[in-house]
Amino acid sequence: MNETNLKNEAIESKDGTTFVDVDKLPISLVNHRFNFKQINWRELLMLVDVYDRSKRYATMVIENGFNFYLLKSSTTALINKKLQMECMLHKHFNRSICEELHIKNKFPILTTEASLIPLPSNHRTRSYSWFNANLLSYCIPYSTDKFSYLYMHGKETHLKVNASGYYLQNKFKDLMMLHNFIIYYTQKSINCINFVKQSRFNNPNLSCANSILFDDQIYHDIYLKTAKYMYEDYLANKKE
């Protein structure tokens, strides 16, 4: 069995499958709790909404290696904070892509460190539970029941979630569309970069000695301003 910082009674077994039921796991079995902790997004397995299970903590974080801990912030707040740090894959860009690709309902979110898929909400809340598809080997729906097991490569213990195979299949299709668009979009950017590089190579006045360094904040601000100007042009054309 894999090492985990959960108490032993959190690990269940059924039909030869060892798992943790993330939707029914009592938070009393989670030993580590923080007001704030930096999430290792590359190692993130799940963000579990536990708002209905705790008055003090809103999210249970599961990281690779089955490291479980509780945070006060909601899953929505944690994801939004992560997206604010993104230069290109920020909240508005994710939303715009999904709207143009006609991805409806709660759509996946792509960041530079995780591909997040939402799970169905079991109670009235604006927050959802999410899992990182990047670290998932495969998922298996159990019989005709509306739950599935999430399998991670090399792990003996798995995660049980309340989501049918049909639901997960559709969400993976949505995520694939998002991935494919980013690849397409990036290729277009690479073509532009290659053109600029060739221009610099052809002109001795644009040598490396004249290069200027910029930080990510400038890139982010320019990107947002560009989006703003494009939207203003759209509104102006719409009136005409």
How would you describe this protein?
By secondary structure, the protein is an alpha+beta fold. It is 34% helix and 20% strand. Strands 3-6-5-4-9-8-7 form a 7-stranded mixed sheet. A 5-stranded mixed sheet has the order 1-2-12-11-10, with no helix packed on it. Strand 5 (59-63) and strand 6 form a beta hairpin. The mean pLDDT is 87.
Structure characteristics:
12 strands, 5-stranded mixed β-sheet, alpha+beta, 4 helices, 240 residues
Question: What order do the helices and strands come in, and which of them pair?
Answer:
Blueprint: E1 12-14, E2 17-21, E3 33-34, E4 44-49, E5 59-63, E6 67-71, H1 75-84, H2 91-100, E7 109-110, E8 115-118, E9 130-132, E10 138-141, E11 148-151, E12 158-161, H3 165-202, H4 216-239
Parallel strand pairs: 2-12, 3-6
Antiparallel strand pairs: 1-2, 4-5, 4-9, 5-6, 7-8, 8-9, 10-11, 11-12
Number of helices: 4
Rg, nearest Å: 22 Å
**Straight-line N-to-C gap:** 66 Å
Strand order of the largest sheet: 3-6-5-4-9-8-7
- Percent of residues in helices: 25-40%
Strand content: 15-25%
| H and E order | EEEEEEHHEEEEEEHH
The parts where pLDDT drops under 50 for at least 5 residues are none
The chain-level structural class is alpha+beta
The number of strands is: 12
Largest sheet: 7 strands, mixed
Tell me, briefly, the overall form: elongated
Mean pLDDT value: 87
Provide a compact summary of the structure:
This protein has 240 residues and is of the alpha+beta class. The protein has four helices and twelve strands, in the order E-E-E-E-E-E-H-H-E-E-E-E-E-E-H-H. The longest helix is centred in the last third of the chain and has 38 residues.
